[in-house]
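Progress narrative, work stream C.
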Amino acid sequence: MAKELKDLTKRSEDYSKWYNELVVKADLAEQADVRGCMVIKPYGYAIWEKIQQSLDDRFKETGVQNVYFPMLIPKSFLSKEAEHVEGFAKECAVVTHYRLKANPEGDGVVVDPSAKLEEELIIRPTSETTIWNTYRKWIHSWRDLPLCCNQWCNVMRWEMRTRLFLRTSEFLWQEGHTAHATREEAETRAKQMLDVYADFAREVMAIPVIRGVKSATERFAGALDTYTIEAMMQDGKALQSGTSHFLGQNFGKAFNVQFVDKNNQLDYAWATSWGVSTRLMGALIMTHSDDNGLVLPPHLAPIQVVIVPIYKGDAELSELNEKLNALTSRLKSMGIRVKYDNADNKRPGFKFADYELKGVPVRLVMGHRDMNNGTIELMRRDTLEKQTLPLEGIEEYVKNLLEEIQQNIFEKANKRLQENIFTCDNYEEFKLRVKDGGFFLCPWDGTEETEAKIKADTQATIRCIPYGYDQSNPGTDMVSGKPATCRAIVARSY
C-alpha cells in the first residue's frame, strides 16, 4: 500500500486531523503563502468545476443570467444598510493606497503615502451593496422586473481561524441577486433557490440535507428571512451548505431602487440573494470519505473510471493497449469520464492506492491472463468490492454501476442522517448527548436569551426551524420552561 495511505490518520482517532490530511494528500488544496488563503489544485478545482457546471445549468433553467461585478466596493456603500455593515464590518479587508515605492531607508518597497485613496475600498465580502447601487440604473418600471442575476467570483472575509475549504479568508462562490416587483415574488424566488440547492445536494453530491429557516440571530446581515440547507457530517456536526435570503425592501430603500408599478405608483424593489461556496467541497469530503481516502459520487467525479494495465514488457503492453484503448473509446462515447493510465512512471500498486485515495468510483484492471481469458477485474470505490467480469458488455455494466454507486453513497449518508436526528425535551440530557454529535429536535421559546444560553453552555447553535416536521404542538422550552413556539434543529457545527 502506498505511503500516503499508511500515513492517513483514521477518522476514529482524530476526525479533524483526518480531514486536514486528506485534503492535502488527495491533491485537492494546500495552504497559500498568504495567511488564511488556499491554493486549489487541479484535481480539487476539477471537482469544483463539476459543482459549478451543474448548479449553473440549474440556475439558468429558472431564468437566471450570469454577470460580473468589481471586487472592490467603495466603503460608503456598506454604510447605507446599517444591519448589513454591522454584520460584515469585523471581516472586511480595506484597500487604502494604490501604489508602492522603493524604500528610501533600505531594500524593498513601502507604501507611497502620496498615493492614499480619496475613499477607501473594501475587498468584497459579498456584493449586495455594489449590485444594488447598479440596479438603481437598470430598474425603472415593473417591465424591468424580475431581474435575476448571478456571479461566480471570489470573496474576502478576514477569518482568524481557518481550515481548507471549510473556512478561509478568501474563497470561491456564486452569489445570486434578484429584484422583484412584489413581496410574494421575492419570497417565492428565495424559497425556489433553496430547493435548487437541496435538489442539487441530493442528486449530484449525494448529500441529504435538512431544509429550514434560520433564527433571527443566525440570519444573513440585512435579511428578513434566511433559508438554509444543513448537512450532517460523519462526526455528527452540522455544516451549513447553502443559504437563500429574503431581503425585503431593505436594499431597495438603501440604494433608492424605485420603479413604477402596474398602477403607475412608485415602489421600492424587493430583493433576494443566495449563495453556495467552496465549503461544499468540505461537505463532500466529510460526508462520504473513509479511512482509505476520498469517496466521490460519480456525478461529481472528474474521473469516473480509471483503467490500469498489468504487463511485463513492451509486447504485452502493446497488446493490452489495443484492447484497452478501444474500451476507453467505447466508454467515452457513452459520456463516461474515463482515464486509461498506461504510463510506466509508477508501479500498478501505487496507481491503485493513488486512485483509491482520490476517490475514483470505478477501477478496471487487465493483465495478460485476463486478456487471454476475455475478462477484466473491476473494483468499486464505495464498497471496495472486487469482481472479475467478462470484457464483453462491460461498458453497459459500468454505466449502470456508476448510477448504483451514486445511489448507494446517498443512501448510506441518508441512513446516517435519519439515525442521528433525535427528539429531546430535557436540557440536562441534551447537554450530555450533544457532545457526541447529532441533530436534536428541541422545543424552543423563540427568544435570543435561550438561544444564547444553549450556545454558551454547549457550543451548539440553532441550525434552523426545519420544514417537514409537525410544529402544531411544540411543547415546553427545555431551557426556560416557557411555552415553545416551535421545534428547532440544534447541533454543533463547522
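Work stream C, second folded protein:
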Amino acid sequence: MPNSIRVTRRMGLRTVVAAAVALPLLTTAHASATWRARPRMDVMTFNLRYASTVEPNSWAVRRPVMRELLRGETPHVIATQEGLYQQLLDIESDLAPHYEWIGTGREGGSRDESVAIFYDTRRLAPVGHDTFWLSDTPRVIGSKTWGNTLPRIATWVRFRDLEDGGREFHVLNTHLDHVSQNARTRAASASLIVERIGEFDPSLPCLVTGDFNAAAHRNAAYDILLGAGLVDTWDTAAERSRLYATFHGYKPLTPDGDRIDWILTTPGVTAHRATINTFSRYGQFPSDHLPVQASLSL
C-alpha cells in the first residue's frame, strides 16, 4: 500500500505513483457469511467539462448550475473528470464543508486536468490513495503511449466506511482517450486498470468510475473490464431512470444513446437504482456530459 498523502487545497497537489506490477485479474469480492442490510452508498461519476472562459457555456455560467445539482444530490462519492485545480476548489467551496477531495493533474502539476474524487467526510475516511498513468510507463508523470493524444491517468482511493463498522472499499476513477480510434489504445488502458485492481485486497469491494469515451456493450475496453469480473451497475440495478447518451455537447439530449460514462463494481455489490441525471436550469447544463449515479450496498 503506498503511503497515504492527502491532496487538498490546504496541501496543494502532490503525486504518488504506483509500481507497474501485473497481477492476476479480479477475483470475486468476499461475501459475508452472515447477511445484514448495509447502509446505501450514493455514487456519482461526472465529467465536469474543464473550466473554460469561452462563451457560451463558460465555467462562470455553468458553476451556479453545478452547485445546485451537487447540493441537491449530495452523493457520498463524486468521481470527477476534466476538473482543473481552481475549478475543483470552486466545487469544494460550493459543496457543504464536510466534502473533501483527492486528485492530481495528469501532467503532475496544478494547472492541468485531473480525475479527482470528492467524498463526504461524515461517511468516509480515506486510508490510502494513488495515481498512475495509462501508459507503458505508469510511474512516469505525464507519460502517454498506445496512441493517446494526451496523458491519461487513473486515481484510486481506499476508503473506510464510518457507517458500516469501518468496512473498507476502493474507488478507481479514470478518463480514457477521446480521439484515437485505435482499439488497442482503450483496450491497453483497460488492461492496465484491471492489473491495478488485481493488486487490491480481493476481499474488499471495488468501484470503477469514469468517462471511458466508449459505448457500453460496444467497445473492447468495456469487454475487458467486464471480462475481468466487473459488473455494470446500469444493467444490474433494480431500478433505472430513462437512458440518454451521457455526452450531449450542449445539444438536445439523445434518448437511448450511448453510455460512455460508467459505474462498474466487483461482484457482490447490490445496485438499487441507476440514474442518468438530466438536471439543467433555464436551459443551461452544468457540463457537456450528464452525470451518472448509482445507489449501492457494498
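Residues 1-35 have pLDDT under 50 and may be disordered. No further action is required on this item.
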